Amino acid sequence: MARRRPRRAASSSSDDDNPTDKLFRTNTSSEPDCGYETELTDPDWSPPRAGCEGRKHQWQQQQQSHRSRQASAVKHDAEDRIDLSLYGSLDEDPPDDTDENLSDVPSDYGGSKHTRKKKLRAKTYWARYCGRKALEPAAAPRWSDPAEAIRAATANDVHRFFNWILGKLKRGQGGRRLKGFKKADSLETEWKYLHNHYVKMTGEPMSDKMRDDIRRGMRSLIDKYKLDDQVRDNTPVYIEDMIPFNETILSTREKRFHLGIQRLLLCFYNMLGLFTVNREHAILNLQYKDLLLTVQRDPHGGPPVPMVDFTPRCVKKKMGMKNLNSFILPEIIYGISLVFSPHVFLFGFLFHANAFENPSLRSMEDVRRLFPEDGCQEMPLPLKHEMMDCYVFCKVDVVDGEARILRDTPMTAGALDSQMKSLSEIHGFLNPFYSHQFRYGGGKLLDESGFVSEAQRNVIMNHASSRTFIRHYRVRQHSGLQEIMCGLDPDEEWGRAVTRMSRYRDKRRPRHLSDAERASAEEDPELQAAIHVHESLADLYRRTQDPALIPLLSRRQQEVTNTRRRLQDRLKHVLRQDFSRKQAVIDIERQLSGSAVNDEHSQQVPRREFEMPPAQIHLLENLLTWPTSDSLEDEWQRRNKGVGAVTEYCDFPEGGPLRGRPPKRRLSPEEAPQKVGSPAKKARLEDQPTISRQEEKNQAIEKDTPTVSEPEKCFQCPKKVS
After folding, report:
1. Alpha helices, H only, 105-183
2. Which regions of the chain are under pLDDT 50?
3. Reported pTM
4. 197 and 311: one domain?
């Protein structure tokens, strides 16, 4: 049988063209003849022995040629192969090349900045106390190092420290006068952070006996310095309080701003505080990325409804952010007044900022024309990407003499509290309004509504348990117990009327001191001592002209100003607190005497700067409106006009805060000083009839109006007689 001659494999013809095949062959086989087919022979045939050596030599040459070609292919493959180590392996662990150790992380990382401030205050007070103790004769060496002193502190040392800060410490950083301690809770807070500092320095808490001894001393200090052991009244506010308050904010001219948007933002803050019961910092740090604006399909079959989802992100956090709550507010038609409609104000702000991504969305009329597509529940209203990091409650500041809206900077809590305090006095509240009162009233309504469970209430208010609500937020004013004991149904409206903040409202409550009251404040010994020190220092400077006395003289002048302002504020607070009792005596006497008309308000001298500008009048005309028909189109038009008025008023320059002395009250005839004059002049004054202010105004108008001679008419016929 003929045998087949050896030949190259068919694939070897493309080896030079396909390096991948060569690489595969190199890696998968180590046989020397892997590139050749196996030679088929006849089992009955055997080669002659005479040519055996020649065939062996030929086979060795073929093998050597094959190995050279294989080495050349491997060399080319090495040049073309990708170094995978440069790109890393998917299953390879990374090296430990981090640049941060646990010691680099502050111990109070993740805590509130207010908590860090209180911790630093306790540490600073202890360091100042140790500094004073180190100056004493025969002082122990440990007082030279505050850290060593806190480690070796005894219960008596802590007691003397608390006695020192309560009775001796009067000045803080930079020589500023401290507010002092008036509540027992303030002393408890100081003890809490001092013990925290002790644990941080020693690594372990104080012993039970040491803590008991310190608390026994704290109880004696509370009685010694007559600290109030009652917490602040948690007086709630409801929507019945906030609607009139917003009307006062929008209409008053006794408080002015740089731009109209500042006045509108205060109203919008009251709405969100009442409807979401969030904390102050959560609302002030609200950004446009926390809003979701949509047009929702009405499940009841009505027209589409604009809706806003609020998701405040700045919440209390410790060891990570808490779960966020979303507050869904659909537009309520035929609801409350427009001065308390969040959609009217928010859409006004958005149209003023040109915040919508669609350029054709410019007014509320355009929003009314939108509807969700078929099969969809909502139609999103996307905002521009550059607006996402802007703050809803932005700051307004004067830059280069011009009032500007700084949308990338939030309004500070101090500015908000100061403005709310001034407006509370204008509105007639007894005490300044503060933001936590939203949580008192809202928490009470959630607790008693029957629609919200206890667990959901804790989620809404970000409470870990109901213990926090019971201890701090549950209103401690109880009404309706008499009706319950008598088997009657309690009157909820009556209970809300006598427990809310407006119960003590009186717009007659004084906001400013009179000249006599200011003079009494000037006679205070503390102020006179500060003035005497300043005058002595000024006299020394006039005699010596020493430049080193100028900074000290400036500080003493500031000390006189601060002392005078503090004494005046304290006197005003006392007068406002005593006003209800004293004014009640006057009102009772006037009503029982038969003169029930109080014309004291008409005796106030109007100021020209209190007159409303046309832009503010236009705003109130569009917001202080009520539905006049049952037509949905008419209600939409009323609300659309309100949104347009808000948009227009945002840029209105109000002129900035008022400066100068307040207007003086017109004195009554009994209060007016009597001047001694001649008997004839006194008689002429007594003979003159008294006229009212309106009559005086009418006479002045008639006097200034030019008279025109008109023909007389006959009293019997209409014939005119010249």
Report:
1. 113-134, 146-151, 155-167
2. 1-47, 50, 319-321, 666-711, 713, 715-716, 718-722
3. 0.77
4. no
